[in-house]
Fold these 4 entries.
Entry 1:
Amino acid sequence: MAKQLRIAVAGANTTAGKEIISVLEERDFPAAAIVPLATQGSLGSTVQYRDEDIPVQTIQNTSFQGVDIAFFASTEKISREYARGAAKQGCTVIDTTPCFRMDEDIPLVVPEINAHRISGHKGIIASPSPAAVQAALVLAPIHRTAVVLRVVLSTYQAVSDMGDTALEELTEQIADLFNFRETRSAVFPHQMAFNVIPQTASFMDNAYTADEMRIADETRKVLEDGAIRISATTVLVPMYYCHSQSVNIETAKKLPPDTARSVLKRSPGIRVEDNPAEGVYPLPVYATGKDECFVGRIREDLSTENGIALWSVSDNIRKGTAINAVQIAEHLISMER
């Protein structure tokens, strides 16, 4: 692979796509050219990269000719339609949608945890959901130290996972309420402003949502341990960015909170903020725009013999999507030099 690369971003006009382009520039990624792609409705729009306004092109099968790496940050439908064709043209696809995450022959990667899986790719590498990236970053060092047996995870999810239309609808609802107008809900199943909604995605036959099952399945795949029992509850909260998670972890052997704190402090991608007596713990308003997953409130879980409870916060669009995807690309090119 050449030192200066031709990079495509499918979904360049999405919340995640725009952040990926921003992160590529910030991290001085060796891109000779950026090819922003979107559906036909985005014709006429541009994206900015290194002070240049680059026209967004309509995505089609020929869009990936001569492209080295393509980030897919659009919809699952777009990934299903174009990703395999792009890979057949010699382009390595890094897909941030749910499309390929649980395919057995496609690596699901959080580089701080399982970067070794990148070398086995066959043209497509999947990036987990932001909530699974966050959960895996926290669980991996604890699993290596004390063996995680069971996890109960409640994730309080920002609306940006649902894209720009969700961000706009939340803003409109807040404005409507302050102006004594009735709110309109087209994106959300109920009023989102000043509310919490215990549903992301559709419900399944087991009464969990598809997102809740994805978090469990993806986290197990990244940790490479299908035996870990995980129960997830996803809750939409009226935040623009940053997922927050309350996590209860049962381990095979006793893990004192001080040891857990020390293990997490040494872990890449993690920043520990844990001094509750002084009001120090992770908060979404401070984690927004940051590259790490923040962890605090680390304490013994009093409901089980070997248990740890903790709280984590991570920017779902930046860390959970863009940084993770670009880190995959960085590892990829370092392996192929």
Entry 2:
Amino acid sequence: MAVLAQIWRHPIKSHGAEALEAVQLIAGKTMPWDRHWAIAHEAAKADNTAWSSCANFSRGAKAPRLMAVSAQMDEAAGRVTLRHPDLGELTVDPDTEAEALIAWAAPLVPADRAQSARVVRVPDRGMTDTDFPSISLNSTSSLRALSQKVGTDLDQRRFRGNLWLDGLGPWEEFEWIGQTLRVGSAELRVVERIGRCLATTANPVTGLRDADTLGALKNGWNHTDFGVYAEVIKSGEIRLNDPVEVV
């Protein structure tokens, strides 16, 4: 049986990941505080009224050094502490200190790319890469298979996933499309596979592109997908080591 091995959230889209031990999922919603904020670039059309696609935001696919940011969320205060090996630490409320946040991360965006301009937050909706409120599921065995193909151990943070599962066969998660999973007291319906981008080629420790993940996926399995998107259909708490089963 599969078990829940890791839980991750990303308070500011593409600006750091944080590991959790447990989280309360809510039906029809993204993971609480996951992609709660996003940083729109100067050419973006995104605003605070509706979901917008990832092309509107500063992100690891275009600015790989962003991949080395880590995050820690203080939920009570609404503040995020960010760390980067080249920039040190910043604690900020993205709602009220957007200029400080953008200035801190500015050196991580290449000069030939659209520069970060403003913080976007849509009430009650995380800015996931899907136009529906999604939670991403990934398999550690698929990661091992891809690591073997690439020729180096790949850090799971390259894939910015929410839930990592142990105990599956490689790519078994693709067989779950359209099925319902029970994790802890929550239930999730698996919707679609996740198509991957250049962000996965960047090392989350250094922020440097050092692995051809997309080429390895294409050459090994004739696709560039990794993981699946699901939607929460029954609210409930999930915790590390919870069993994951098809219902």
Entry 3:
Amino acid sequence: MPYSKFSNAIKFSDENKLLLKVAENKDTPPEVLAELSRSADEFIRVAVALNTSTPRNIIDILSKDSSSWVTGSLSKRYESEISIISIHPTSIINKYAKIGKNVIVGAYTIIHKNVDIGDGTIIGSHCEIGHPAQNSSDSGILIIGKNSYIRSHSIFYEGSYFGDNLITGHHVTVREKTKTGRAFQIGTLSDIQGHCEIGDFVKFHSNVHIGKNSKINNYVWMFPYVVLTNDPHPPSDIAIGVTVEDYVVIATMSIILPGVTLKEGSLVGAHSSVSRDVEKNTVVAGSPAQYLCETSKIKLKDGSGLNAYPWRRHFHRGYLPETIEKWIAEFSKSDADNQFTI
């Protein structure tokens, strides 16, 4: 839609918030939920999907939604609905573990004593939550935030903290002393080697490896088979982590070497080996990686001719309404003379 129309839409944010409340309300009539399920606003469609009063015929329509966030929300709902009991009888839960309200634990999952699981969390089958740390100095409570979803065969060590709305794929491993913010997503077969700091709304695809002592800021994307290393001359006992600043994108099968800093908004091209710091809003690629251009030089391959970066200018799926409004305001001045499609 043209930018001018999108700007007008922002004026109705209060109305959108009201519609969101209606979509979440269990007393909302089915015909109203049906209308809201066709909303262009992804947040509203997700709210309808998660509303336990939404009729099955509407759920069936939403199951074919183009948004992976909507269909993923339905997957979480289905797992909740088919669970006859919240704690599977084959699971083993230490009596000292703290389990929140409406928590679901799948078959053959083990939850150790140093664990605090937030309300509304789902843990799949064959998981181990709160695995003892290798060193006693790294022990402590493993905190899993509210409304998280840990899929089957995942292992989380004790002594870590995860903000609300954590989502994992299958067969994920997270070692001790990992601290993350809200809405962290870890893809299938990814592993985090511990003693790491990770910010809000960070997204890892499958098979991502994060070396010990890594520091990752907010709104970062890492695509399949990305590796952050930490040993400057392996094998050794030295661990120098990688630093990744806000809005960085690391494309598939790239390796970031110890001590490197990827500065805000930078882009690492696929199959790259990065041994030096990458400057803000620049593109590097190759092995060894070399400077290619400013990120602003890359255009969207949709025929529009618009800039692909900063990506937050046009990609908003899965982020909070207030964050999206902030991003739009950030670029409104520079885009005032241009029409672009969201």
Entry 4:
Amino acid sequence: MPFTNIQMIVMDMDDTLLGADHQISPENKLAIEQAQAAGIIIVLASGRPTPAMTPFADQLNLNNGGFVISYNGAYVTDWSNQQVLFDTCLTKYEHDMLVDAAHAHQSNLHTYVDGDIVTDALNPYTDIEADLTNMPIRCVGDLKEAVQGSVPKVLMVAAPDKVKAMSEELKTSLGGRFTISISKPFFLEFTNQQVDKSAGISVLCSKLGIEKAHVMAIGDSYNDLTMIRDCGVGVAMGNAPDDIKAIADVETLCNEEHGVAAIIQRVLRSQQVAEQA
């Protein structure tokens, strides 16, 4: 495993960097600080909206040379100056198409407008998203009427077995138009076809002059699949499903066992050995 050449580490947040308490453990924070001190660039990559990533990016001092990939790759932000390097959203037409698809599948749907989670029916899954992101919920009578512009992403929310079935069906009927992925088992996420976490990493690699072969990507779920597959070292968390582990180069401990810290320490030890050789 080419740990000695890692120049950038990209990590998912929920169920990867964060524990069940939705916090960064002291072990993970220390390892990230050590990686930063060694000159490794740290990137957070999440399906979360940018505002829901801000406290964690600040806690990790990403203002000193780090980056944030939010909305599953719809936005890429240089955290040192808050400059948005890339943004590709869904058009209103695409949003309205997904509203119709959600209604046809008797699924709830929500999106994001002006810092709010916007939905046309209060439901427990949108409550979960509000709890994760600390963003307010705005319930509207008609989503098509309420959303008059582009949106970064749309979520269809339902029980896990229904989400899995919808994912398989909609990837056939709509997959040519959208990037479709499951983040949490009850979240089916839709972004612009050009958008995913791997594409966001490509934006950063181009800007920084780093080859993707020198990037480590750490994740646990299906919206992490492309970055785990495409980067030089793809890492699956111990709590990842087996089909995500199957495409990874290496597996680390689960998020409750500080798996991010464990794999970063392996990288740092490898680089120290290489320097001493």
